[in-house]
Amino acid sequence: MSNTPKATITSEDVARLAQVSQSSVSRAFTPGTSISEKTRRKVLDAARRLGYRPNAHARSLITGRSKIIGLVLLYLENPFYAIALQRLAERLQCDGYHVLLFINHNQNADALVSEILQYSVDGIVLAATTLSSVLAAHCADAGIPVVLFNRVMADNLQNTVSSVRTDNVAGGRAVARLLVDTGHQRIAYLAGTEETSTNVERERGLREYLGENGMRLWGRANGNYRFEQACQATRELVVPGKDIPDAIFVANDHMAFAAMDTLRHDLGLNIPGDISVVGFDNVPQAAWASYRLTTVEQPIEPMIEATVGLLQKSLGQDSAGESDEILISGQLILRESVRDRRTEAGTMSLRDK
Q1: Longest dimension (CA), the chain
Q2: Is residue 348 part of a domain?
Q3: Could you tell me the end-to-end alpha-carbon distance of the chain, in angstroms, rounded to an integer?
Q4: What is the pLDDT of residues 199-232, one digit of tens each?
Q5: Containing structural domain, residue 49
Q6: What DSSP line would sit under 284-313, residue for residue?
Q7: Which of 137, 96, 62 is nearest to 308 (CA)?
Q8: CATH number, domain at 30?
Q9: Over the stretch 172-197, which tens digit does the pLDDT of each residue have?
Q10: Contact at 8 Å (CB) between 169 and 208?
Q11: How many domains does the chain have?
């Protein structure tokens, strides 16, 4: 065992003991690099014997890369984003990156992203939040790529920031087609936060298809993508003693669960006997026996891969100033929360696709 104090142990000491080059020591501690397993074992054994730990900060000063990706979320209440966070962190770790999480309680992320820039992150992923054109330009000038996850910039700003999202318009149209084809006449929409692209696009698809079939949206209320607000919005749409919708398309599953709980437990209605309910996301809870929610699936794995791919591309030497918009097709998952009103039996018995 070496008598060298641990505080002064360097990669050169490890290389000398392992009888390898210093670059081999660096590769042994860098995920995804090319190194033989035999050499890696020699380096790790020497590092263990010397008590050596690589200094990530020192490495970042040498390479100019912190290997940290800043991730901004509004909140983790929505299970879709909790799952996305886990999958993104796992995927980035495979490439030697780590996630620095920031929670933004406001819709506009400018102040928080300005703070993130102080951490020398290599890239930023914004999930369920927006970014101004001014700050987007600031990030571009600083050489820090920004990827919007499940969001898109305004039409006049789409060429400034890359984005990955599900085809929300097509998803809204698929929901409308299902409800029209199953004989629903009074279709309502329980909206998310008004200005978000997810809400705007999902409602657009719904309205477009209804209009093409000579129908209008029967009613509308706003749940702001929050559970309690979605409960209240459901009560606004369904008032005892008045005409009620025969179907509600909810902008995401998280609010759809709130709507279903309110309809059943507060208003005493049957799903789908009295009202059909459709969501958007297909989080794991949608398949639970207590919900069995028909919903549009957002394909998380392809979305994560696309997000990581955009980050990798942006961090390359030949991609400065480039931006991409990736649109991924979702899938309508049929469960028992939708009634076929053309049949006397009433309830659709459909397996998950």
Answers
A1: 85
A2: no
A3: 60
A4: 999 999 999 999 999 999 999 999 999 999 999 9
A5: 6-54
A6: GGGGSTTT--EEEEP-HHHHHHHHHHHHHH
A7: 96
A8: 1.10.260.40
A9: 999 999 999 999 999 999 999 888 88
A10: yes
A11: 3
